[in-house]
Structures are given as structure tokens and as C-alpha cells.
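C-alpha cells help. Our protein:
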Amino acid sequence: MARFGALLLLALAGCSSGQDATDCDTGECAAPDDAGLLQVSQSARSVLLQGAFAPPEARNASGASMLAAGARGADGFASTAKSPLCRDVGARAWLTQNGLDFLDDYLLPTLLAQFVGKEFPKVSNTSMGFEINITELTLHSLDLEPKDIQLSFMSGRGIRMELHEFSLRLTLHYKVRGDSWWNNLLWTGGIADVTLSKDSAVSAVMGLSVNAQGHLEVSLTDTKIDLVVKDLKIRNSILGGLIEALQSFLVPLLNRMIEDKLTKWPNESLNPILADLSFRLPIPLGDAEKYGINADFSVCEVTTGRNFMAVDVYGEILSTTNPYTIYPEYPLPIPELPPLGWQDSMFALTITKWTVNSGLWLFQQLGLLSFEFTAQDLKKLNMNLPIGFDTKALGAIAPGLAKKYSEVMDVSVGISPLQAPRVLFSNNEGITVEAPQKLSFKVADDANSKPAFELKVPLAASALTAVVPKNGTDRLMVDVEMIKFTPIEVLGTTVGDVQLKLLSFILDALEKKGILPMANKALAPGIPIIGAKGIQLVGLQLQVSEFLSVMSSIDWDLMRTLREVFGSSDAFVQRVMKQIAKSMME
């Protein structure tokens, strides 16, 4: 039964378009010249090095520096002049103000709380002729409430971050030694105990962009540090009293130094980590693993409006073993506006049918949508078919078959796509799959299979989808509205006439009384929306129009995420503190 379900679904993902069936006999379907579709031969694929039709490593280097911010309308949405890198994208994600509020209400306070009580790595630096060593730097307390953190969008720039009315206490051991001829005898050291008052504030604008290599980059601008020292105690130092007396002079210098370090920190520490991140998600589906098939969600552009941040991603299904892929059509333009009701969710995602179809086209080219079923395989499916798969039973459809083979022999069936598969989205019909198939009937004569006849079946199906709460879990509900097998055409025969009327009658009955109710029964429980690594989607909504849009908020168990990604929250803290210490030493 499971195999039949896989057969049905994969067969439905077979093909579409209007080309002649004979063009597909070799497995490489070419569109007619007047169809306006992209035609690329195997030997010519290497010329496609611009836009969405190049492999990621080639297209990432093909004009990312040409990204243009573009003009912005009064509604705050981007009207962007796309570069070749981002002209054709498969998906766009929007971060909403609700998403930012979640970050400053829960995520950032929880993350920062992990640093309390932790000791930073040793920091060594040379500044203004002095070698400075700081050890045992420990954050003892942090008074920071969610209301003290404010994140907001800045149109055309990024996200403005503000921390105000917070206080903290830290201690550190320091040693200062002159490293020049005029001060090499000067050295001192001690223990500093610093408490900041609630008048302290930090602000900056975080920008996101994509560099010429296609890597996501973070920048910090308009950085402002205003740390107000409430109490400063210096112990074990002959200069302690002098430092305490000069704090009104030294603290502003310290603020400017931190501002400078903080501005440089993304390039020195964060962006190298982002450059190593992969936004390709493996698709563990049967033979797909052998071909290294991935969903590529690499970022190609980031745009910020008054109340959103939009991230364009490729949304392409690709193979690491076959980086050049033939696409029968170009991607659709992605909508500039988020889906209706997006403000009520934390994020929204819109994908074009091209994203789904690129995967089907790739599967077709790799031969993953072609199947061969013997008579024994079909019997094991136990579908209660109205006809058997041997020369006598199929003689009702092809009378010449029974005449040609006097002995009853098994017949196998091969299923393969005739044309490029196609998925369509619409308001009324939901999600539709058009997938014309070729059915090849072969007689198992001794050790060889002899062709009997071939049919063209215009396979198509449509389904409506919705997300509903069920048994305490949000579930994706799918209702298959239609499965179509007719009208059938004969592509070729070695056994004479094929009775298409009888076959059409059988297939129509099979659709209405067998496959359609069987499919809906299997789908009736719904597909649970399962979270991963501590992140669970909540309030998920689907909208099907010309595009497929998803809107959702999230329930995030941050501590579980840190455990599953880094091993523990302490491991995460240590990694971040090492990066901070490294940037302070440069």
C-alpha cells in the first residue's frame, strides 16, 4: 500500500506542457522553439553563468556587487531594481514587527542571561604604547528587562537596536605594562570592580546585505555607547586611587574604544562565521540522497521597509552531483507585498510554483520519476483492480495481445514522464499537478521483455489544503479534489488495436471508486506540523493564489536549541566569548 502511494504521488509529479510525446523518448524533453521556454543542451549548459540558471557558486559571483537599493514608495515597501543575482528568485521571506518584538521580549534577554556568572577568556592588546592584559573578566549581574530592549525597522537601512536603563556589575584582573622606550619601566596591575548605573545605554543600526561572494553579511553603524559608572573600586594597585579619581576622564575614552570595537566586530568575528554557514537543506527522499539533492535557500538580497524586513532566497532544488540543470521555463516574479494578514504573524514566506517545479524537473532529468512494475509487484499492491496484468486479462483491451501469445504470460508496466512536470497554484483549485505519463506494457517472454503497446495518460490531480488544530497539534489537511487519467492516446503498438473506450471506463471507475477515496482516507488524519531543535511553528496559515504563502509565529525553547546545536548553553557562551575576546585583541 505504501509503495502504491509513492507510485501515485511520484507519477502525479511527472510532467506537463504541450510538446509531442516522441520528443521524450530519450528522456530529455525539448520544448518547441515557439514555446518561449529555455532550451539548453548538455554541452551548452556552461554558458549559463548569470542569474538563476547557473550553479550557486557561479551565480553568487556574478554581479552581487550590482545590488541596488532602489526607490521606496510611500507605503514603505521596496521598489527594487534587481541585479542579475537576484532578478529571478524562488521565495521571499518577511520578518514582521511581531517577530522583532519576540526577539526583544524573549530571545535577547534569555541569551544575555546566559553570560551572567561566566568568565571571559584572557584578553591581550596593545594600545597607545601600553600592553594590556585582562583576565578573570566576570559578569556578576545584569539588570535588563524586556522593556529595556527596543528593536525597530529603519527603512532602507536595517534594524535599530537600543538597550537603555540597564545596569550590570563585573570584575576583572588587569595588568598594564609600557612597551616603548619611554615607558618600559612603567607597569601596574590590580582588580577592578565596576558597577554601571541604570542610566547606561547602547544603540546601533544593524544592516544585512549579501557580498560579492553571495555570503550574508552583518554591519553595525551609528554605534553609540554610553556606559555610566555608578561605582568603581580598584584593589591591589598603586595607581588605584588615581584611576578612581580620573574615571570621569577615562570612562568616555572607554566608551569610544568599545564603539570602535563593536563597529568592527561583525567583519572581524561574525561575518566569517556566516560565510561558513550553509543554507542548503538536504532532501532525504529515496535515491535523492545519492544525487545530493538539496533545497537551496541561500540569501541573495535583503530589503528593509518601515515595518518589515524582506529576504530574497533562491528557493531552488538542486543536485550537488549535477550542478547544471535544464529548466523548461523561467521563474515568476515574486510579489513585492507580503500576503494578507502578515502583520499578525512573526514571519511570512511566499514561494512561486517555480520553486516546486524546479525539484520536479530535476527529479525527471535524474530519472527519479520513472518506475518499472512487474505483474508480481502489481499483485502485491492488492488494489483489487478490475483487470489483471497478463496477456489473457489484457486481451480485453488489446485483443491482438492474447492472439499473439497463446500461452498466458505476465505483463509488466513501465511509468515515465512524457513532458516537464508542472505544479500550478490558484485560489479556486488550490494546488494542481499536471503530469502526462507514458505507460509501457511489456510481455515477460523468457528472460526478455517484449514491447506490446504504449499509452499516453494525461495524468493530473488537484487538492485543497488548510492548516487546522487537531488532537492538540496543528495539522496540514489535504483534500484531493480530482485525479484525472483520461483521455488516453495510443503512442505505439505491436499487437494491433487498443480498445481505449474500455480502458477509459476502467480508469474512470478506478479513479472514482478506488484511488480518490483511498488517497483521501490516507490523508484524513492530516500531516502534523512538527518542530525541530526546540522551534515549533504556531498559528500556521496557508494562502494559495498564484503563489503559495505561509504565515506563522513560533514557540521557541531557546535552551533546547542551544543544547542540540552547541551541546550546551555554556558551550554557546564560551564560543561567543572567545569571538569577543579575539576581536578585542585585534
Residues 247-276 form the longest helix (30 residues).
